[in-house]
């Protein structure tokens, strides 16, 4: 075998073994060179080297390119801001105040005229007692409308007023209106019970100012618009002989109730569509309350009249049995009149609001 390999020119076995050993040593050196030697662990409390380079800071968020963030949703805060341009609590309060003050002045003039034409003090007191509910209701509406103007001015000052500030402004304005009305009563009539009449008129104006501080203010303004419309209806019906002021005609009360419900409804619909009032769209309970607001105002007028003007009313009732019976009858009819206006107004406003709903939501 050895001889045959030698003859064929193959390398000797010793040379082959030497070559294989050299290749094995080379592979071992290569593997040893590629192994990573671990860093030695620090011994004890070794401090880091001072000149060690700090780690690379975290990369900052890249700034969005122009127009890249336009489609991102915008978060709108629901917290109240100082003032929204073009938004006022009760739109049209100035016009309502002018009309209310004009009506208030007219009722004072009528009261003064009736008292001045009386031949005796008894007739003067009776005339004052008959006109007192009308003057008190006009004073309440005038005080509320004037206070509403003050609330609007405070809201337009550029900041959101606190509840105490709003109430204070409304009450101060209504007190001023009440004092002017009381002065008009005293100047026009200085006889028995004049101070009681003046105090009752002033108290009604203050009560109206307190009501003007309620929210939403647009509902208060709507009720005032309905009250002024009812005053106009009462004047026309009284001129035609329906005697609507004393409440002797149920038809007059129904007509007044329909007006008291529809006029505030259209007022609220207009101001909410224009988006010029606080609170936005209102639900049906607010419309129903607005329609009943004029009737509630008449009931408040009745309470103020009977409490504040009790001395004058009792003086009239003490004149004779006929006067006492007449007073009881008139007081009862006024109460029925106010209740009819309240319920008919609430019903009319609710029906009108229901007509604006889609057919699927109608009850």
TrEMBL record:
Residues 9-25 have a biased composition (Low complexity). The keyword Transmembrane applies. Residues 30-64 have a biased composition (Acidic residues). Signal peptide: none annotated. Keywords: Membrane, Transmembrane, Transmembrane helix. The chain crosses the membrane at residues 93-111, 123-155, 167-189, 195-212, 219-237, 249-268, 280-300, 335-354. Residues 1-87 are annotated as: Disordered. This is Uncharacterized protein. It comes from Asanoa ferruginea.
């Amino acid at each position: 075998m050895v001889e045959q390999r030698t003859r064929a020119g193959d390398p000797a076995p010793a040379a082959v073994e030497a070559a294989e050993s050299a290749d094995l040593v080379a592979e071992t050196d290569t593997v040893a060179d590629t192994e990573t030697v671990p860093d030695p662990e620090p011994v004890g409390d070794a401090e880091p080297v001072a000149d060690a380079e700090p780690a690379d800071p975290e990369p900052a968020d890249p700034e969005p390119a122009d127009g890249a963030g336009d489609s991102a949703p915008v978060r709108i805060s629901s917290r109240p801001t100082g003032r929204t341009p073009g938004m006022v609590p009760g739109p049209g309060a100035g016009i309502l105040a002018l009309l209310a003050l004009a009506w208030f002045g007219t009722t004072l003039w009528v009261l003064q005229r009736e008292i001045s034409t009386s031949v005796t003090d008894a007739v003067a007191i009776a005339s004052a007692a008959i006109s007192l509910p009308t003057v008190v209701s006009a004073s309440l509406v005038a005080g509320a409308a004037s206070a509403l103007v003050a609330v609007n001015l405070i809201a337009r000052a550029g900041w959101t007023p606190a509840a105490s500030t709003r109430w204070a402004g409304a009450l101060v304005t209504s007190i001023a209106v009440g004092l002017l009305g009381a002065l008009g009563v005293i100047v026009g009539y200085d006889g028995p019970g004049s101070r009681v009449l003046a105090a009752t008129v002033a108290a009604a104006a203050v009560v109206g100012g307190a009501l003007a501080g309620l929210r939403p203010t647009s509902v208060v303004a709507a009720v005032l618009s309905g009250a002024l419309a009812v005053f106009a209806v009462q004047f026309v019906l009284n001129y035609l002989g329906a005697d609507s002021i004393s409440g002797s005609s149920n038809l007059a009360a129904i007509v007044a109730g329909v007006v008291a419900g529809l006029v505030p409804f259209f007022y609220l619909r207009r101001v909410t569509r224009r988006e010029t009032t606080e609170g936005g769209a209102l639900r049906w309970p607010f419309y129903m309350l607005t329609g009943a607001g004029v009737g509630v105002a008449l009931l408040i007028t009745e309470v103020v009249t009977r409490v504040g003007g009790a001395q004058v009313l009792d003086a009239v009732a003490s004149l004779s049995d006929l006067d006492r019976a007449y007073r009881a009858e008139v007081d009862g009819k006024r109460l029925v009149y106010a209740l009819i206006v309240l319920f008919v107004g609430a019903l009319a406003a609710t029906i009108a609001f229901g007509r604006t709903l889609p057919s699927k939501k109608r009850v």
